[in-house]
Design a protein that fits this description.
54 residues; 3-stranded mixed sheet
Length: 54
């Protein structure tokens, strides 16, 4: 499998509130485009699951 090309950081922060197939896919695509991604999943309280910083 070929790794996608990663772009330089753009300084844009993206918040994704879903860890389903669509949320994970969006997080990966945004990260590969150079955005900082914050991925949240709803529990009984709101928690940060992952923070990808380029």
């Amino acid at each position: 499998m070929v790794s996608p090309t990663q772009h330089p950081p753009l300084g844009i922060k993206v918040l994704i509130v879903s860890t389903g197939f669509g949320g994970i896919t969006a997080a990966i695509k945004c990260h590969n485009k150079g955005h900082q991604v914050i991925l949240l999943k709803v529990f009984t309280e709101l928690k940060i699951l992952a923070l990808w910083d380029v």
